[in-house]
Amino acid sequence: MSPWLVVGLGNPGPQYAGNRHNVGQMVLDVLARRMNGSFTAHKARAQVLDGRLGILPGGAPGPRVILAKPGSYMNVSGGPVGALAKFYGIEADELLVIHDELDLPADTLRLKLGGGEGGHNGLKSISSAIGTKDYLRLRVGIGRPPGRMDPADYVLRDFPPSERADLAVTLEEAADAVEEVLTLGLEKAQQRLHTV
């Protein structure tokens, strides 16, 4: 059975690490901590962590999962994601992409399968690379920019100190949602997440 591929979108390099656009990679850092693992370089131009995540009903260890941070810029994430999917033999229904979402209020999480990309160039690049939009997404709300700020500037700004306590809670909840998708299935994970 092939593993899950869980991708956290963002831009590479320390100057982007705290940006709103990098919230997907922040969720992966929480998951890596839960797996007691660290990321290593992969030839597909990505940082990966291969291990097991969560506990299945009945107490067995959760499924094998590849956590991946593409080493490319967000807008061309498809290259590394497509290469990893090919390398590990992963189909679209075993791919979960975690990304920032301007159209959701801050600290809101939503799971969905397929659908449009909502102007998100990272998702467009992945859909193009794997040939389908039918993969899972965990959307992490970052809210709209204040006033007339350009959304492109907003997503490349760090979370301010005033938001970091809430952000830490959201990242843990997002990691919980990923574990639930992998161990309980999308429907049960959605029911719990979307009715909170």
List keywords for this structure.
36% helix, Rossmann fold, single chain, alpha/beta, 6 helices
Task: Give an overview of the whole structure.
The structure is a single chain. The protein is α/β, with parallel strands linked by helices and 196 residues long. It contains 6 helices and 7 strands. It has helices at 23-34, 78-88, 121-130, 151-155, 161-184, 186-194, and strands at 4-8, 40-42, 46-52, 64-70, 95-101, 109-113, 136-141. The protein has a 7-stranded mixed β-sheet, sandwiched between helices. Helix 2 (78-88) runs parallel beside helix 3. The longest helix is centred in the last third of the chain and has 24 residues, at 161-184. The N and C termini lie far apart (33 Å).
Protein topology:
Elements: E1 4-8, H1 23-34, E2 40-42, E3 46-52, E4 64-70, H2 78-88, E5 95-101, E6 109-113, H3 121-130, E7 136-141, H4 151-155, H5 161-184, H6 186-194
Parallel strand pairs: 1-4, 1-5, 5-7
Antiparallel strand pairs: 2-3, 3-4, 6-7
